Amino acid sequence: MAVVASGQITLIDLNDAKSLTGYIGSNQAKVQIFNPNGNTYTPNWTTNNMILTPSLFVSGTATDI
C-alpha cells in the first residue's frame, strides 16, 4: 500500500519561555533643542557627553543582566 499523506506536529510550551525586556537609559535628557537665534543646542552634548546605558531584564526579575 502506498503512503497517501504524511505530516509533522510540533508542541511548544509557551508558559516556560522567558521574556526579555530592554531599554536604553541616559544621564541627560534624550531630546536636544536648537535655538536658531543664538545657534545653540540645549543640552550641549559637545561639552557634556551623553552616556547611554543599555539595560536588559528577564521578565519577573529586578536584576539587570
What report would you give on this structure?
With 65 residues, this protein is mainly β. The chain has a domain at 16-58. It has no helices and four strands. The strands form two sheets. It has a two-stranded antiparallel sheet. A hairpin with a 4-residue loop joins strand 2 and strand 3 (40-42).
Number of strands: 4
Roughly how many Å apart are the termini? 57 Å
Shape: elongated
In spatial order, strands of the major sheet run 1-4
What fraction strand?
25-35%
**Which class do the helix and strand fractions yield?**
mainly beta
Q: What's the overall average pLDDT, rounded?
A: 79
Number of continuous helical runs = 0
Largest sheet: 2 strands, antiparallel
Helix content: under 10%
Low-confidence stretches: none
Report a brief summary of the structure:
The chain has 65 residues and is an all-beta fold.
What are its keywords?
mainly beta, two-stranded antiparallel sheet, elongated
